[in-house]
């Protein structure tokens, strides 16, 4: 038996989560183009490999072998640091997401989660709010007015939508009474009772969170920081080769993480309907042991969570190729005069419903 | 002293010095963010998870973004920065030095109370414990602080309201 470093089996989970995030982000680039082609009635990438499945590899080779260009007057250190920071902050938030319940082997329980902390939600919120630094630093260090404008737009957009996002989260917190994402997931399904996913109790909160998630990941219709009709390429105008690749990649990692967070908070995470009935069926009718039936449910739950995540990723891409971009003042008005009051009203409604015992 | 504590203190001190000595204001801001991160690490070592997370969200996530935002707009650098007169520099050195002196003098006689390992509640820094303390022992100051925030928010909305008459944007 090889002795693992201090974290033990958790380090394996963290490594797998890291690899899976990168793999999904890689294939998001392919999925984006295939979905765009589908929505615009085109063929899409189909040259590299069967059905164009090797397209992400071809793109990566292209990105790595392109000329690396430093614009004149750029702040070199920060110019390199910007994309790195974007990637780091994108990857950090997946640490606390519960990707599955526990697997039991003998007396050992393995939790399919990087780290279980009771500030999981705050961690996500904090890391998401740091995501803007990569864009800001990269845009500023490029020494280009379009990049700077993109960076400034990104900063003000993120700060504006963070508020509404935080308030939408507070409504979930009021119901769950815990900040741990694992606890929130487990509360959404209890054996032998009718328990609904949070989306049923928090429909308005989910809509607010979803809109803010689009804004925080800089996706259309909120992609003002890289608005090519006004700002050339926005914050990554001056970037080339893999530094540009890291920015584009970080966006997809962010989408993956945000989709995972939405699934966990509002769509039951690794729970799926009738899981306890299925487990009991395996135990009672098929004569399985309880632990192995539970392990099977855990694996199915993980697959279910990934199905939800893929659904949300598809939703992100569907929106991108359907809706036009906002104008900047419309974006600000939506954030400050519609979403924040709505979020406050949502908190008040949730508080009232909890007070009168309608939901708990 | 654990090696983690030493490492975090080292990073905190080096980056705090970097804030002061960096020529470029944007570098200063980035060093300050690094300082906040190492302070959050210290909070985590003290088992104050909530404080650590909130420190990152509020300071690193919101306030420093606004700082960076303003500095990028002003675009301060060596050429455009006005040189301060020697008198101002001397005054700043004297004021800062006396503050340091007072802090050192005040801290010299402090004996940390320490804690009893048998009765110490390791959950003291967790969110629910903190909430109970805030809402039981310190309810009035807490509510007063929230009223203060509300006043600031109303003031900001008033300032930001569109003025009647001609628009220039």
UniProtKB/TrEMBL annotation, chain A:
Which sequence ranges are marked TM in the entry?
A: 6-30, 78-100, 120-142, 163-182, 194-215, 252-276, 296-319, 331-359
> E.C. number, please?
7.1.1.-
Any one Gene Ontology MF annotation carried by this entry is: NADH dehydrogenase activity
Question: What processes does the entry annotate via GO biological process terms?
Answer: aerobic respiration
Name the domain of life: Bacteria
Subcellular locations according to the entry? Cell membrane; Membrane
Tell me what topology the record assigns in the membrane: Multi-pass membrane protein
> What is the catalytic activity of this protein?
a quinone + NADH + 5 H(+)(in) = a quinol + NAD(+) + 4 H(+)(out)
Chief site of localization: membrane
What's this protein's family per the entry?
Belongs to the complex I subunit 1 family.
Record's protein name: NADH-quinone oxidoreductase subunit H
Q: Which organism is it from?
A: Hymenobacter wooponensis
Chain's gene name: nuoH
TrEMBL record, chain B:
Reactions that this protein is recorded to catalyse? a quinone + NADH + 5 H(+)(in) = a quinol + NAD(+) + 4 H(+)(out)
What keywords are annotated for this sequence in UniProt?
A: Cell membrane, Membrane, NAD, Quinone, Transmembrane, Transmembrane helix
One GO CC term, this protein = plasma membrane
Q: Which residues cross the membrane?
A: 46-74, 86-107, 138-159
Record keywords: Signal included? Answer: no
Keyword Transmembrane helix belongs to the record: yes
Can you tell which superkingdom this protein's organism belongs to?
A: Bacteria
Q: Where in the cell is it found?
A: Cell membrane
Primary location recorded for the protein, binned into one broad class:
membrane
One Pfam family assigned to this protein is Oxidored_q3
Per the record, membrane topology reads: Multi-pass membrane protein
- The EC designation for this entry is 7.1.1.-
Q: Which GO terms describe its molecular function?
A: NADH dehydrogenase (ubiquinone) activity; quinone binding
Q: Which PANTHER family match?
A: NADH-UBIQUINONE OXIDOREDUCTASE CHAIN 6 (PTHR33269)
Describe the function of this protein. NDH-1 shuttles electrons from NADH, via FMN and iron-sulfur (Fe-S) centers, to quinones in the respiratory chain. Couples the redox reaction to proton translocation (for every two electrons transferred, four hydrogen ions are translocated across the cytoplasmic membrane), and thus conserves the redox energy in a proton gradient.
The record's family statement is: Belongs to the complex I subunit 6 family.
The protein depicted here goes by the name: NADH-quinone oxidoreductase subunit J
Read off the lineage from the record: Bacteria, Pseudomonadati, Bacteroidota, Cytophagia, Cytophagales
């Amino acid at each position: 038996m090889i002795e693992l470093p201090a974290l033990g089996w958790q380090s394996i989970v963290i490594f797998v989560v890291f690899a899976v995030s990168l793999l999904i982000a890689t294939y998001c680039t392919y999925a984006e183009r295939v979905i765009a082609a589908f929505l615009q009635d085109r063929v899409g990438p189909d040259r590299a490999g069967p059905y164009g499945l090797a397209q992400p590899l071809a793109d990566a080779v292209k990105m790595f072998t392109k000329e690396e260009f430093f614009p004149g007057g750029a702040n070199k250190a920060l110019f390199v640091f910007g994309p790195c920071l974007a990637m780091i902050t994108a990857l950090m938030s997946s640490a606390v997401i519960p990707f599955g319940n526990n697997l039991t082997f003998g007396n050992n329980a393995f939790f399919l989660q990087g780290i279980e902390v009771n500030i999981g939600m705050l961690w996500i919120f904090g890391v998401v709010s740091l995501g803007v630094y990569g864009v800001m630093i990269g845009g500023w260090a490029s020494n280009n007015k379009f990049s700077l404008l993109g960076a400034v737009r990104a900063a003000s957009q993120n700060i504006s939508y963070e508020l509404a996002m935080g308030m939408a989260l507070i409504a979930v917190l009021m119901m769950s009474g815990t900040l741990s994402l694992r606890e929130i997931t487990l509360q959404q399904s209890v054996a032998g009772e009718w328990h609904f996913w949070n989306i049923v109790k928090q429909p308005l909160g989910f809509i607010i969170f979803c809109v803010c998630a689009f804004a925080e990941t800089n996706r259309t219709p909120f992609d003002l920081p890289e608005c090519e009709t006004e700002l050339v390429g926005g914050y990554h105008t001056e970037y080339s080769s893999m530094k540009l690749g890291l920015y584009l990649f970080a966006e997809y990692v962010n989408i993956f993480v945000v989709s995972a967070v939405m699934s966990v908070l509002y769509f039951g995470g690794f729970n799926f309907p009738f899981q306890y009935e299925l487990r009991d069926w395996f135990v009672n009718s098929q004569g399985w042991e309880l632990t192995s039936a539970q392990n099977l449910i855990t694996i199915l739950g993980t697959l279910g969570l990934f199905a939800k995540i893929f659904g949300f990723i598809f939703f992100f891409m569907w929106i991108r190729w359907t809706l036009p971009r906002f104008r900047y003042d419309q974006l600000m008005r939506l954030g400050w005069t519609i979403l924040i009051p709505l979020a406050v009203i949502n908190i008040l409604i949730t508080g009232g419903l909890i007070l009168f015992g309608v939901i708990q | 002293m654990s090696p983690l504590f030493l490492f975090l203190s080292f990073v905190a001190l080096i980056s705090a010095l970097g804030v002061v000595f960096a020529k470029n204001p944007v570098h200063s801001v980035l060093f300050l963010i690094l300082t906040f991160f190492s302070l959050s690490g210290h909070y985590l070592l003290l088992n104050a998870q909530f404080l650590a997370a909130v420190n990152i969200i509020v300071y690193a996530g919101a306030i420093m973004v606004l700082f960076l935002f303003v500095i990028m707009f002003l675009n301060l650098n060596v050429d455009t920065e006005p040189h301060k007169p020697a008198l101002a520099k001397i005054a700043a050195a004297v004021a800062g030095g006396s503050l340091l002196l007072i802090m050192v003098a005040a801290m010299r006689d402090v004996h940390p109370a320490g804690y009893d390992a048998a009765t110490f509640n390791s959950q003291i820094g967790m969110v629910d414990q903190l909430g109970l303390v805030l809402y039981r022992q310190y309810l009035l100051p807490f509510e007063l602080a929230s009223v203060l925030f509300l006043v600031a928010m109303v003031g900001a909305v008033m300032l930001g309201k569109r003025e009647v008459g001609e628009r220039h944007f």
